[in-house]
Amino acid sequence: MSEWTSADMMNVAAARELLDGDVCLVGVGPPNLAANLARRTHAPNCRLVYESGAIDAKPRKLPLSIGDDDLAATAVSVVSVPEMFNFWVGAGRIDVGFLGAAQIDRYGNINTTVIGDHANPKTRLPGAGGAPEIAAAAGRVIVIVKQSPRTFVERVDFISSVGYGPTGRERQAPGAGPTLVITDHGVLQPDPATNELTMTRLHPGVTVDQAVAATGWALKVADSIEAVAEPTEVELTALRKLRNRELFDE
């Protein structure tokens, strides 16, 4: 078995959550890698949609950004941004929204706007782009983010994309909200009664104590926690090819 890293495991675990035939709106960074990994392994008919307007894109190598020209060149259609958000996202035509985060709290609220006070921030982040609409309307939302006390905070500095609201009871958006949060430690899912994120799966070699130490709130852990299977050779080969931006045969 080849060696793999915690980042490899996170991306593989995220890719496995996409179903063949899903319509997936892909964010930048790890979501982009995971979604393309799914299409190159178990979900070849997963339809990748990018907020730049590319519908059912079939990139021949990992796109550098949502503006990568390979997305437009291989898409079934390229639509305007208003059409993307009114016809596709807002109308509920996206099965899965794949998002990242700079901060996330126990109720799945995401900050990608500022660190610190909004009027006088310590760090101004790139912003939310179309993530608020995706988080609100996608059928289900998968968040991919490395787990640390700096990222998993008691209260996000700013809610860029709503999860279940400040107390877990405020969500009124049409989509299901963050159904999974996948990290380099394992997988969290909202508690059915409270919507509090709960650790339900651990990656190989990760302990509950490590996951708790990597969380900025008192992490809730499932009574029966599952073990995530190690990456396969097929997954690792495709992942490395994507990272190296090698061309895939169609």
Can you put this structure into words, describing what you see?
It contains 7 helices and 14 strands. The longest helix has 11 residues, at 6-16. It has helices spanning 6-16, 30-40, 69-74, 81-89, 131-137, 208-213, 233-243, and strands at residues 23-26, 47-49, 54-55, 77-78, 96-99, 103-104, 110-111, 114-116, 121-124, 140-144, 178-182, 186-190, 197-202, 220-227. The radius of gyration is 17 Å and the shape is globular. The strands form 4 sheets. The protein has an 8-stranded mixed beta sheet, with helices on both faces.
% residues in beta strands: 15-25%
Number of strands: 14
**What do the pLDDT scores average to?**
95
What is the percent of helical residues?
10-25%
- What's the order of the H and E elements? HEHEEHEHEEEEEHEEEEHEH
The span between the termini is 27 Å
Count of helical regions: 7
- State the shape: globular
Biggest beta sheet summary? 8 strands, mixed
| Low-pLDDT residue intervals, each spanning 5 or more residues | none
Rounded Rg: 17 Å
> Structural class, from secondary structure content?
alpha/beta
Strand order of the largest sheet: 2-1-5-10-11-12-13-14
What secondary-structure arrangement, pairings included, does this model have?
Elements (H helix, E strand, L loop, with lengths): L5 H11 L6 E4 L3 H11 L6 E3 L4 E2 L13 H6 L2 E2 L2 H9 L6 E4 L3 E2 L5 E2 L2 E3 L4 E4 L6 H7 L2 E5 L33 E5 L3 E5 L6 E6 L5 H6 L6 E8 L5 H11 L7
Parallel strand pairs: 1-2, 1-5, 5-10, 10-11, 13-14
Antiparallel strand pairs: 3-4, 6-7, 8-9, 11-12, 12-13
Helix pairs in contact: 1-2, 2-7
